[in-house]
Amino acid sequence: MRCVLVLLCWTAVVQATPQIDLIVYGPGDDVWSRFGHCAIRIGGEAGRAYSYGYADFAADGFLWRYLRRDARFALHSRTWVDELEVYSQRDRTIVVMPIALTDREATWIADRLRQPLTYRYEHQTDNCATRVRDLIDEACGSAFSRSARARERIPLGDSDGRGYATYRDFTRDAMSGSPFVSMVCDFIGGPNQDRVLTRWEWMYLPENLRELTEVAQAQLVYQRTGPALRGEVSPWRWLLPFVLVAVAVALGSRWARWMAATVAGLLGGIVWTLVAVSNIDDYAWNENAILFWPTDLLLLSGKGRRYLQLRLAVLVGYAFLKAATTWFPQRNLTFLAGATALIATLLWSMTRRERRPTVAAVEG
Known about the structure:
This protein is α+β, with helices and mostly antiparallel strands. The chain folds into two domains: about 15-150 and about 200-220, endopeptidase fold (from Nostoc punctiforme); about 235-360, no CATH class. The protein has helices spanning about 1-15, 60-65, 80-90, 105-115, 130-140, 145-150, 165-175, 180-190, 200, 240-250, 255-275, 280-285, 290, 305-325, 335-364, and strands at about 20-25, 35-40, 50-55, 70-80, 95-100, 120, 220. A hairpin with a 5-residue loop joins strand 2 (about 35-40) and strand 3. The protein is elongated. The protein starts with a helix and ends with a helix.
């Protein structure tokens, strides 16, 4: 009789232990979904999916709070049936991967996820993937973070084995299917984007959380059927618009001179504003603020030769220090070349126009 009671108690404990799975969603058509997403499923196919990173993007002042690192995001849950329907309708690949946990660890995670939570979001250091990573690591007594440190010498990469090692590498890859958005992300991302990541930081991407799971037991639940969302990563193609405007300026086009001053001034306004107001590491400092100045808009008046001489001297000095020292690590050679082309041709064009009356007077 005692054996029967023990067996019944053991069965009840086994049944009470929640099944914990990691759910990884592939990128979607929306730009904001290009990095993928992840969730934790509790209770198998009859259970619920819990994921971090939900917010009201249309709320008043959301962009300002985001730039100030004060945007509030929340833990969200819904049934796995509803979750599966939502993401399959969005044509996003869904992979379920079991996580090897003890009964105590699984129960601790389930209890933690059932508690309401809001937090200050940061797109690389406190996002949907890092929250899951840290939650599992805390449940396991820091076993995963210790393992990551022990494997630090192993080269990083993406799921296809490409040797990416920085935030900029992964951002360029994620946005490569949308060239304009990719260029914007590359422009507003400062030198923090070029810091080589540790293996622990590398798991800020949902697809890299595979290191926390039993990859061999991964189950493909849904496969995207739409076109590929990633293309060739070639930042030098962003130089073409600058070159075209510079050539037009050199040919004497008044419209091109106006365009060059407007582009340089607006780009300067964007990057200087981000540096001034944001306390996010990516935006708090940006070497592109040396390349483009908001005051370039003053060139719309058609005057400012001395100003252009100063601008060109700054660009040449920056390029020299960038090549000769390690003071400026940001990978922004495309924008350096573009800014130099605009400023140099504007200066050449303005100098040529100012000299024309003198030549005419001499001939007269």
